[in-house]
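Q: Could you fold this chain for me?
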Amino acid sequence: MLSGFQRFLLRGNVVDLAVGVVMGAAFGGVVTAFTKSFLDPLIRLVGGGKVAGTWELRPPSVVDGLNIPPLVIDYGSFLTAVIGFLLTAAVIYFVVVLPMNTLADRFRRQEKTPVAEVSNEEKLLAEIRDALRQRPL
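A: Sure. Below is the predicted structure, expressed as structure tokens.
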């Protein structure tokens, strides 16, 4: 029972998945730091606000005796998240997927093409030839 579990853990897929999750988490931290350090200030600069890109909707100050505060839509955070996602996807594609596809193509090219299997007609003709050779003259 434990040997089966050990084989399961040591299979390539499980180990690759574990490495991928750890690397993805580490890379996610790098992207988060990059977006907070560089992209947020740029979006603030373009948006001209203290908060990274907000849009404020002000309803009428008094509606039926209720004082409704303004609605603040924080599009800067959404924009930062989208840019972070695109950066993450691009780096994963160019650093992981593209090299792996290139290696897989090289290994496929190095594999020998299988020899074409003999057709049924050729097998029958070979049997007839062998039978004719064994026949006494």
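A (continued): The mean pLDDT is 76.
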